[in-house]
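PROTEIN DESIGN WORKSHEET
SECTION A - STRUCTURE
LENGTH: 416
TOKENS:
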């Protein structure tokens, strides 16, 4: 028996990475994989501040963490490493990495956001993907100067008034969202510990939700929907960190409750990050880097990993107008440690195609730090890219078409 992190693994499971991995089932599976680029959300972290939600929204204080606020936990690092271990064998089976030893210099490229949790996630994933190979994780010297992952903090500016109007045009609108998600609000208030005697945790759903303009950035969702998004994410993080269930939502949250509450996270992103005016500017540096990698421009690796934040993924989703479902998470919700990726494939005639995918551990794979193998793989699902298809296959896009779609938005982002 061998122990890794919190897992005890049998010899049979240790042999599993040597088994044959097949490409995920889907159209165009006979094409040869030439490159992969992934935009990954950092792994599990505590809340970014001590008071995760405003005073009076919970009946008891939030659970405590030993990791500093907002930083990657040891559990989160191990989850990312396990994804790297799996991808080493998976990508080797598809011809991108050697089955043993290190890839040639320059074939694995890793770039992270300047925030500590992203850098540590990239390091952990890379340690699993290419153990002992000395792959450097490139990142900005300061999180305040991060033009790829935080462009609005590094010189790129938005017109806040135009961004607000763009968000206000998104359907169905915040008032309707509150009505449509009354059942999820009821679950949220149960988990927060609604106490009619003290009113603690009982007034969240009654708070009006609104959009607040920012001078040179996208708008912020405020009120009930903002509190609900943060609360749902915080309970999720307690769960995937592996905390005892009596510390997950104060013992009042089931996995199904968490999945319901996570819908608020996607609602917040719909209005803050996905409007075309915002997304086509915020995600532009990442989209440009992805396109350059797929086209094999200087510095492109055969395997490229970009490690950032859920906001980056939400904005890229808005940039491309794509939708995804990752593992057992709600539609368009980026899980901790999951990644939106793009495969570059070629047919026998040398024609190049792009296929978008999302890969992530399930909640329980991450909570239990399960070994990922051919018999227990992370989720890996393709999604269609609007404006691209091949003979009716919406998941396969000619590289030339993908380049035109992305290039057009980079050259002339939405004006309103």
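SECTION B - SEQUENCE
RESIDUE ASSIGNMENT:
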């Amino acid at each position: 028996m061998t122990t890794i992190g919190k897992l005890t693994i049998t010899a049979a499971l240790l042999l599993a990475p040597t088994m044959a991995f097949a490409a995920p089932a889907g159209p165009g599976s006979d094409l040869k994989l030439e490159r992969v680029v992934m935009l990954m959300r950092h792994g599990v972290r505590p809340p970014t501040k001590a008071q995760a939600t405003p005073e009076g929204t919970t009946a008891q204080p939030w659970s405590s963490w030993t990791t500093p606020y907002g930083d990657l936990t040891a559990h989160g690092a191990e989850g990312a490493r396990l994804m790297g271990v799996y991808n080493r064998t998976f990508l080797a089976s598809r011809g991108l990495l050697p089955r043993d030893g290190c890839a040639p210099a320059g074939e694995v490229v890793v770039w992270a956001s300047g925030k500590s949790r992203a850098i540590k996630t990239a390091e952990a994933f890379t340690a699993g993907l290419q153990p002992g190979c000395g792959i450097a994780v490139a990142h900005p010297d300061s999180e305040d100067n991060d033009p790829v992952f935080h462009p609005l903090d590094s010189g790129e500016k938005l017109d806040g008034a135009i961004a607000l109007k763009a968000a206000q045009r998104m359907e169905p609108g915040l008032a309707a969202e509150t009505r449509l998600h009354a059942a999820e609000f009821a679950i949220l208030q149960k988990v927060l510990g609604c106490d009619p005697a003290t009113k603690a945790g009982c007034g969240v759903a009654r708070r009006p939700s609104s959009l607040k303009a920012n001078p040179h950035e996208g708008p912020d969702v405020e009120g009930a929907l903002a509190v609900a998004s943060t609360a749902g994410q915080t309970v999720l993080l307690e769960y995937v960190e592996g905390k005892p269930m009596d510390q997950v939502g104060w013992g009042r949250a089931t996995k199904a409750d968490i999945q319901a509450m996570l819908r608020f996270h996607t609602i917040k992103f719909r209005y803050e990050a996905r409007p075309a005016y915002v997304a086509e500017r915020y995600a532009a540096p990442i989209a440009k880097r992805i396109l350059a990698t797929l086209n094999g421009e200087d510095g492109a690796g055969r395997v490229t990993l970009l490690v950032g934040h859920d906001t980056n993924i939400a904005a890229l989703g808005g940039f491309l107008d794509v939708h995804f479902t990752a593992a057992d998470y709600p539609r368009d919700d980026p899980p901790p440690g999951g990644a939106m990726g793009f495969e570059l494939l070629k047919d026998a005639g040398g024609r190049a195609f792009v296929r978008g995918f999302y890969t992530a551990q399930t909640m329980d794979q991450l909570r239990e730090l399960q070994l990922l193998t051919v018999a227990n793989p992370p989720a890996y699902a393709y999604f269609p890219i609007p404006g691209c298809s091949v003979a009716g296959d919406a998941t396969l896009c000619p590289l030339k078409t993908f380049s035109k779609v992305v290039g057009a938005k980079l050259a002339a982002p939405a004006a309103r």
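SECTION C - NOTES
The first strand starts at residue 2 and ends at 4.
Confidence is low (pLDDT under 50) at residues 1-20.
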